[in-house]
Amino acid sequence: MNRIAWQSRWRRNALRLAKIPGFRRLGHRLAGMGLSPYYSGRVVLSRYLSEGYVSLRARISHDALKLGRHCFVGDGVLFFQDPGGDVVALGDEVHLHENSTYLTADGGSIHIGSGTHVQPRCQFSAVKGRISIGERCEIAPQCAFYPYDHGMAAGEPIQQQPLTSRGGIEICDDAWLGFGVIVLDGVRVGKGAVVAAGAVVTSDVPDNAIAGGVPAKVIGQRD
């Protein structure tokens, strides 16, 4: 047996050990031996079992979390369900990296398509509206998604203003969002579109368009 095959068998068996009550921590430690502590080193662990890999340091407080096959959930990832929160559903081979947050509340839901990668410190706040991310999307670090708006009428305290939604957020297949992009309620980012770092998306971005700025405007076409 060559070295790669031996390592694969070792990691697969260690992850199976981690499923036994009382051996979870030991199994995770054995599976990760020799791998970089950064996510790019450990994401391989999601491939060995169909259940994928969920870090011991992930925080899950969500009754409607659905994971596809071979998903990776990294350190510090938070799934949180406030009152009325709907499902968080991940397709196959989704990668959610360090310290990203997935909140549902008041009818909001999150759907992330197969093969999509979400980089560290992203914020998904699905309150009232739906956040729908397509397949094979690339979401860079520190992106934020807000499928709702907060009232700000004069003469009433901000904390008492109602929340509203114009239908949520849709990011279509194969889109790429750069570092720090903010996507607001009622927006569709088209298939294959690219949004430049730091943009604030307040209106639709067509298929294969390149958008940037605050607020984001179309500045080019991939085709």
How does this model look, in words?
By secondary structure, the chain is mostly beta strands. The protein is 12% helix and 31% strand. It has three helices and 24 strands. The chain has helices at 3-17, 24-31, 39-42, and strands spanning 53-54, 59-61, 65-66, 72-73, 78-81, 88-90, 95-96, 101-105, 109-112, 117-118, 123-127, 130-133, 138-139, 144-146, 149-150, 163-164, 169-171, 176-177, 182-184, 188-189, 194-195, 200-201, 209-212, 217-221. It has a nine-stranded mixed β-sheet with strand order 1-4-7-10-13-18-21-23-24, with no helix packed on it. Helix 1 (3-17) packs antiparallel against helix 2. It starts with a helix and ends with a strand.
Q: For this structure, what is the CATH homologous superfamily?
A: Hexapeptide repeat proteins
- What's the helix count? 3
* Largest sheet properties: 9 strands, mixed
Helix and strand composition category: mainly beta
Q: Report the sheet-strand fraction.
A: 25-35%
Give the strand order of the largest sheet, numbering strands 1, 2, ... along the chain: 1-4-7-10-13-18-21-23-24
Quick one: CATH class?
A: Mainly Beta
Any idea of the CATH topology?
UDP N-Acetylglucosamine Acyltransferase, domain 1
Q: What is the compact description of this entry?
A:
12% of the residues lie in helices and 31% in strands. With 223 residues, it is mainly beta.
